[in-house]
Amino acid sequence: SLIYGITVGKYNYKVIKQRIFFPDLPEAFDGFTITQISDLHSGSFDNPDKIKYAIDLVNEQNSDLMLFTGDIVNTDAKEMHPWIEAFNGIKKHEYGKDSVLGNHDYGEYVTWPSEAAKENNFKAIKDLYGQIGFKLMLNEHTFIEKGTEKIALVGVENWGNNFKKAGDINKASQGLSQKDFKILMSH
């Protein structure tokens, strides 16, 4: 399965459409659409035509909001450099393009020559999200307003077993009320 994932699977894109219902969803958001992508691992890319196809597939969804839930690279920020122009082809979405970091974005899987090199890479990775038009959310929230109603988008950094635990849900949701409708975004 590892060999399949590295060779064929990396371009085996799937669009899974899921209609979900919430009794407390503000009425203005009925029919609101979200496209979510994750785990690009851009250091594994080698076929520009397949990447263009993926971006076209994302754009064809015509969603209201675009979410990217991390792992823009395998380890090094430089992995994404050849693909920045292509990923700028993801069109603007009416209610934004937001992102959070994934476990690979912290550069934890290699030995760096120095702590400064690791920190510089981490800063460069965080900058990549902005370079492709995504607002990076680091344990914070924002409101999406539609008419007079709003929902909260809560972006929490990575948290998981055997991975960097940088997520802080309390910090990210500080100031939100129990009545606020929330979408949690985390890797």
Secondary structure blueprint with pairings:
Blueprint (H helix, E strand, L loop, with lengths): L1 H6 L26 E4 L10 H13 L4 E4 L15 H4 L9 E3 L15 H17 L3 E2 L3 E7 L2 E7 L13 H4 L9 E4 L2
Parallel strand pairs: 1-2, 2-3, 3-4, 6-7
Antiparallel strand pairs: 5-6
Main beta sheet: 4 strands, parallel
- Cα shape: globular
Query: What is the oligomer described by this structure?
Result: single chain
Q: Which ranges are low-confidence, i.e. pLDDT below 50, for 5 or more consecutive residues?
A: none
- Which structural class matches the secondary elements? alpha/beta
**What spatial order of strands do you see in the largest sheet?**
1-2-3-4
Query: Helicity level, as a percent range?
Result: 10-25%
Q: N-to-C terminal Cα separation, in Å?
A: 22 Å
What is Rg?
Answer: 17 Å
Elements, N to C (H/E)? HEHEHEHEEEHE
The number of helical segments is 5
Mean of all residue-level pLDDT scores: 93
Based on DSSP secondary structure assignment, what is the total number of beta strands? Answer: 7
Strand content: 15-25%
Brief synopsis:
The chain is of the alpha/beta class. The chain has helices spanning 2-7, 48-60, 84-87, 115-131, 169-172; strands at residues 34-37, 65-68, 97-99, 135-136, 140-146, 149-155, 182-185. A 4-stranded parallel β-sheet has the order 1-2-3-4, with helices on one face. A 3-stranded mixed β-sheet has the order 5-6-7.
Walk me through what this model shows.
The chain has helices at 2-7, 48-60, 84-87, 115-131, 169-172, and strands spanning 34-37, 65-68, 97-99, 135-136, 140-146, 149-155, 182-185. The model has no long low-confidence stretch (mean pLDDT 93). The protein contains 5 helices and 7 strands; from the N terminus they run H-E-H-E-H-E-H-E-E-E-H-E. It is 24% helix and 17% strand. The strands form 2 sheets. A 4-stranded parallel beta sheet has the order 1-2-3-4, covered by helices on one side. The protein has a 3-stranded mixed beta sheet with strand order 5-6-7. The protein is an alpha/beta fold and 187 residues long. It is globular.
